[in-house]
Automatic annotation (TrEMBL), chain A:
PROSITE patterns noted in UniProt: COMPLEX1_24K
Pfam families, per database record: 2Fe-2S_thioredx (PF01257)
Keywords: 2Fe-2S, Iron, Iron-sulfur, Metal-binding
Region (Disordered): 216-254
PANTHER family in alphabetical order: NADH DEHYDROGENASE [UBIQUINONE] FLAVOPROTEIN 2, MITOCHONDRIAL, NADH DEHYDROGENASE UBIQUINONE FLAVOPROTEIN 2, MITOCHONDRIAL
Name of the protein in its database record: NADH dehydrogenase [ubiquinone] flavoprotein 2, mitochondrial
CDD domains membership: TRX_Fd_NuoE
Family: Belongs to the complex I 24 kDa subunit family.
TrEMBL record, chain B:
Species classification: Eukaryota, Viridiplantae, Streptophyta, Embryophyta, Tracheophyta
Organism field: Xanthoceras sorbifolium
Cofactor(s) the protein requires to work: [4Fe-4S] cluster; [2Fe-2S] cluster
4Fe-4S His(Cys)3-ligated-type domain ranges (all copies): 147-186
Keyword Iron: yes
PROSITE patterns xrefs: 2FE2S_FER_2, 4FE4S_HC3, 4FE4S_MOW_BIS_MGD, COMPLEX1_75K_1, COMPLEX1_75K_2, COMPLEX1_75K_3
Protein name per UniProt: NADH dehydrogenase [ubiquinone] iron-sulfur protein 1, mitochondrial
The entry's keywords: 4Fe-4S, Iron, Iron-sulfur, Metal-binding, NAD, Translocase
Domain 4Fe-4S Mo/W bis-MGD-type, first and last residues per copy: 284-415
Family annotation (InterPro entries): 2Fe-2S_ferredoxin-like_sf, 2Fe-2S_ferredoxin-type, Mopterin_OxRdtase, Mopterin_OxRdtase_4Fe-4S_dom, NADH_UbQ_OxRdtase_75kDa_su_CS, NADH_UbQ_OxRdtase_ferredoxin, NADH_UbQ_OxRdtase_Gsu_4Fe4S-bd, NDUFS1-like_C
């Protein structure tokens, strides 16, 4: 009896501390199903631009002609760059037509990968790394700073259509954590860039946003002036001399 | 004569036991291996003396394409011989071990994503997913070790993690794989304290209800839709815990086979919308029967509760081993002291078949009495041995079309339940059977014999058509036919109206030429078979007929007979495809029966067949795809009208469920009797209505398009005062003073035996033995008018489906406009 009461109480305490329910933890910018809207419905015409048609041909040439469907990911990426960072359903249909598969096979791929955005994103899509090393180094604060500065929620586009903020899984720059990525869709697929800004601080990301807004170029990589690439702050403390050659049998002596 | 009876006793009980074949299930790694040449190999594998022998699961049998490819594996220490290429799961089935599974389905591709079938394999560091693991020689498989059990328990816990606890309100309850397997591998409590995920339900149309939160992502429905149904609509969207089955853009499942996803769904995610919350499966009585909505004769199970048909499900129907049957049948005869081979020399077969085959109209006139009886009976007893050379029966695998599955609500609506007479005011008045029959008999005697016309409907069983023909013949008329066969059907050569290749045999084909037929709407199960062949063999399909949509790659050659003439004369590029093919198949639609120039068209098709070597001793690729369940039996029974324009001069018309007939030319003063189960088109013109029972309420014989006779069984009682069709005609014959000499089903069947003995060989396909070469020369000219489509609306083709509300919904929402 006492044990049951205790366990009940324990459960109540746990309920209090429980996080607010999250439907499903998904990094995708959209739902797993499509809802027609004026700017995103299957009736809208969508085609690869003239310049990109050559790229499509080039991409398809990488794969055997009977395995055109292998090109789905590069083509979706190209379509996303062309369409300002996101994939309307008609773009996915266009890709399906190019690779000669049923549209659902393309939707399956596009919904699987979180880097394919199926809702509108800003011209500069800022992705904050949320994986453990970056999180320990303060990625939550960085995201908060960005959201607060831009006055949006996650995956929401600012009123001027310039910025949106999303979260992303590890991008392999853990040594320079925390980091953000800026996907620049402002110039279509020709001027597309996807740059990492590492060692950011809440203040620095706001500066980055403002520089992007002014259209200034800023060097990607570490934002800590004291570091060179992923080297330690203030210069190397080890490995100072020229590295020794690998130990090798003296062949001449033989 | 006595010998024949004895032999019939020896074979009949065996033939009619359909339950034995339900237990037989073949496992083959390739479809082309489904040949009847096999013996239970599991029995060959001799078990070690200390182990009790196990029987293969669900009658699973193995077939060795060549004996060198046999390998031996050990399942729980029990050695089994299996052919190379089988999976571990199949090996376990042969060894008689049931492996739990969700995603694996023997007729779909292997996905291997549910992980429920984990087994332990010796020298393997981890449990392996048996459904996707090929069995290797000498493999030691352990299915009931603590490792395997723990692995499955872990998988089950993960599956149940996000599965709602709504079994009490779930329609799958009682026939749910997850429910059943959680009894074996599930824990009595969960360790999952987070929120369960929920998924938005999808709208797949009026047939399939979705509760997507229950989905366990086995992807069976996705694979079924893309592989069997040929609609690339369903997919797996998202990933991780957000993964869900869906169509992404809102889309209805517009397949004629969509109902099958209800059966293959292992949980309650996809259930039947019309059946939702109607009954629990354990309350239902299952009756194994035959579908009559098309000419395929799909094997179904009618689930009923009391007087109501609750749902219709497919029943597993697999290729049989005829050699085995032959052995069993001859064993029985030997036990009786007979040696079939000594009595009936093989040389006598063709002779016997010749007479049976021609089935001259004169034969139908012969009464089972008088001097002719000996003649007929002699060939009848010979014909008893025909089934041993009959090919295997495999009609609908385990799928059925949506029309078959969901037409059942039509059985409850628009039913005729009392005999009725149209009064002077044009309104029907319910009367007693005695009065109704008396009036019909009186009018029938008032008209001249040649003014009497009888028309059997699409859904008529062979017994009632036999009785109607006998009755009309006794009244002196021979103006009887079955609707859909045209006014001048060609019933002399059986090969001219059945599917000679057999539905199962279509899988061996590599080129199809479809002439004036749209199998997708005419016979969805045949279409599924063609699609399967196209996928497996890369078979080429050419189509001549009106614009229509196929769910496989199809070359539209032309719209009319002119294209056929081009092919016949070798002027068309498709000729090379036919002549280069190993097993070419030509399928002619029965819609052409209604054309005036059908004989000319058939002779053109025969020319194509001759030039393309379509009919060979080892392969008969010239087929007719019939439209209605009654057609094949009607032609077998010789329902051929004497004159082609009898309806213009008719004074007494007997419609036995015939609704799709054009009665405009019928004289105004003609007396029309409508005998049927639904108040459909035929009733509008009727003077007297005689209520009959529907296919779900009677025992009747139907022959399908490939020439396989099958029987329906009564699942529910008849409605109101309705009677079986043949009984009504038998009663009428007595009132009319021309009493028919049978008053039991057995009696009428022995009468049928004298006319078309193959109709009594239930569940056996009797191939036609005489080719088209015997046909007389055709003098007709081909009319260049293009072919028309035979079925306008797949969902509404007969009186039952036209009365069905579900079918009306389907034709409103699912049909391509």
């Amino acid at each position: 009896m006492l044990a049951r009461l205790a366990s009940k109480r324990l459960l109540e305490i746990r309920q209090v501390f429980r996080q607010p329910p999250q439907a499903s933890r998904s990094f995708s910018t959209a739902l797993n199903y499509h809802i027609d809207s004026p700017d995103n419905n299957p009736d809208l015409p969508w085609e690869f631009s003239e310049g990109n048609k050559h790229k499509v041909k080039e991409i398809l040439s990488h794969y055997p002609s009977n395995y055109k469907q292998s090109a789905v990911i590069p083509l979706l990426d190209l379509a996303q760059q062309q369409h300002g960072g996101w994939l309307p359903v008609s773009a996915m249909n266009a890709v399906a037509k190019v690779i000669e598969v049923a549209p659902i096979r393309v939707y399956e791929v596009a919904t699987f990968y979180s880097m394919f955005n199926r809702t509108k994103v800003g011209k500069y899509h800022l992705l904050v790394c949320g994986t453990t090393p970056c999180m320990i180094r303060g990625s939550r604060e960085i995201e908060d700073a960005l959201l607060k500065h831009l006055g949006v929620k996650r995956n929401e586009v600012t009123k001027d259509g310039l910025f949106s903020v999303g979260e992303m899984e590890c991008m392999g720059s853990c040594v320079n954590a925390p980091m953000i990525t800026v996907a620049d869709y402002s110039n279509g697929s020709e001027g597309y860039s996807y740059n990492y800004y590492e060692d950011v601080t809440p203040e620095r990301v706001v500066e980055i946003v403002e520089m992007l807004r002014r259209g200034e170029k800023l060097p990607p990589g570490t934002q800590n002036p004291k570091r060179i690439m992923s080297g330690p702050e203030g210069g190397n403390t080890t490995l100072l001399s020229e590295p020794k050659p690998p130990p090798c049998r003296d062949l001449d002596a033989c | 004569m006595g010998l024949g009876l004895l032999a019939s006793r020896a074979i009949r009980p065996f033939n009619s036991s359909s339950s034995s074949r339900l237990l037989l299930r073949t496992i083959v790694s390739k479809p082309e291996l489904q040949s009847p040449e096999s013996s239970a190999a599991a029995a060959d594998a001799c078990p070690e003396p200390d182990l009790p022998p196990r029987t293969p699961l669900a009658g699973a049998r193995v077939h060795f394409p060549n004996p060198e490819d046999a390998i031996e594996v050990f399942v729980d220490g029990y050695p089994v011989k299996i052919p190379k290429g089988m999976t571990v799961l199949q090996a376990c089935e042969v060894a008689g071990v049931d492996i739990p599974r969700f995603c694996y389905h023997s007729r779909l591709s292997i996905a291997g994503n549910c992980r429920m079938c984990l087994v332990e394999v010796e020298k393997s560091p981890k449990p392996v997913a048996s459904c996707a693991m090929p069995a290797l020689p000498g493999m030691k498989i352990k299915t009931d070790t603590p490792v395997a059990k723990k692995a499955r328990e872990g998988v089950m816990e993960f599956l149940l993690m996000n599965h709602p606890l709504d079994c009490p309100i779930c329609d799958q309850g009682g026939e749910c794989d997850l429910q059943d397997q959680s009894m074996a591998f599930g824990s009595d409590r969960g360790r999952f304290t987070e929120m369960k995920r929920s998924v938005v339900d999808k709208n797949l149309g009026p047939l399939v209800k979705t509760v997507m939160t229950r989905c366990i992502q086995c992807t069976r429905c996705v694979r079924f839709a893309s592989e069997v149904a040929g609609v690339q609509d369903l997919g797996m969207l998202g990933r991780g815990s957000g993964e869900e089955i869906g169509t992404y853009v809102e889309k209805l499942m517009t397949s004629e086979l969509s109902g099958n996803v209800i059966d293959i769904c292992p949980v309650g995610a996809l259930t039947s919308k019309p059946f939702a919350f109607k009954a629990r499966n354990w309350e239902l009585k299952g009756t194994e029967s035959i579908d009559v909505t098309d000419a395929v004769g799909s094997n179904i199970r009618i689930d009923s509760r009391g007087p109501e048909v609750m749902r219709i499900l497919p029943r597993l129907n697999e290729s049989l081993c005829t050699n085995q049957e032959f052995n069993k049948a001859s064993d029985r005869l030997i036990k009786l002291g007979l040696r079939p081979n000594n009595i009936f020399l093989p040389e006598t077969y063709p002779t016997a078949l010749f007479y049976l085959e021609l089935r001259l109209p004169a034969l139908a006139f012969l009464e089972p009495s008088g001097p002719s009886i000996l003649f007929i009976s002699f060939f009848t007893c010979l014909s008893l041995f025909i089934p041993v050379i009959a090919t295997s029966v495999d009609i609908n695998e385990e799928w059925i079309s949506d029309k078959t599955r969901f037409c059942y609500d039509g059985l409850k609506r628009q039913r005729l339940n009392d005999p009725m007479i149209r009064g002077a005011d044009g309104r029907f008045k319910a009367v007693s059977w005695r009065d109704a029959l008396a009036i019909v008999a009186e009018v029938a005697h008032q008209v001249k014999p040649e003014e009497i016309v009888g028309i059997a409907g699409k859904l008529s069983d062979a017994e009632s058509m036999m009785a109607l023909k006998d009755f009309l013949n006794k009244m002196g008329s021979n103006n009887i036919w079955c609707e859909g066969t045209g006014t001048q059907p060609n019933a002399d050569l059986r090969s001219g109206y059945i599917m000679n290749t057999s539905i199962n045999g279509l899988e061996k084909a590599d080129v199809f030429l479809l002439v004036g037929t749209q199998p997708r709407v005419e016979a969805a199960m045949v279409n599924a078979r063609i699609r399967k062949t196209v996928r497996a063999n890369n078979a080429k399909v050419g189509y001549v007929g009106p614009e229509t949509d196929f769910n496989y790659d199809c070359q539209h050659l032309g719209t009319g007979p002119n294209t056929l003439l081009e092919i016949a004369e070798g002027r068309h590029p498709f000729v090379s495809a036919i002549s280069n093919a190993k097993n070419p198949v030509i399928i002619v639609g029965a819609g052409l029966f209604e054309r005036e120039d059908k004989d000319a068209i058939f002779s053109v098709v025969e020319t194509i067949a001759k030039k393309g070597n379509v009919v060979r001793p080892d392969w008969n690729g010239l087929n007719v795809l019939l439209l209605n369940a009654a057609q094949a039996a009607a032609l077998d029974l010789g329902l051929v009208p004497e004159s082609s324009n009898s309806i213009e001069s008719a004074k007494f018309v007997y419609l036995m469920g015939a609704d799709d007939l054009n009665l405009d030319k019928l004289p105004k003063d003609a007396f029309v009797v409508y005998q049927g189960h639904h108040g459909d088109h035929g009733v509008y013109r009727a003077n007297v209505i005689l209520p009959a029972s529907a296919f779900s309420e009677k025992e009747g014989t139907y022959e399908n398009t490939e020439g396989c006779s099958q029987q329906t069984l009564p699942a529910v009682p008849t409605v109101g005062d309705a009677r079986d069709d043949w009984k009504i005609i038998r009663a009428l014959s007595e009132v009319a003073g021309v009493r028919l000499p049978y008053d039991t089903v057995g009696g009428i069947r022995s009468r049928m035996r004298t006319v078309a003995p193959n109709l009594l060989h239930v569940d056996e396909r009797e191939p036609a033995t005489l080719g088209h070469s015997l046909k007389p020369e055709v003098t007709q000219k081909v009319n260049p008018a293009p072919f028309k489509s035979a079925v306008e609306n797949f969902y509404m083709t007969d009186s039952i489906t036209r009365a069905s509300k579900i079918m009306a919904q389907c034709s409103a929402t699912l049909r391509k406009k």
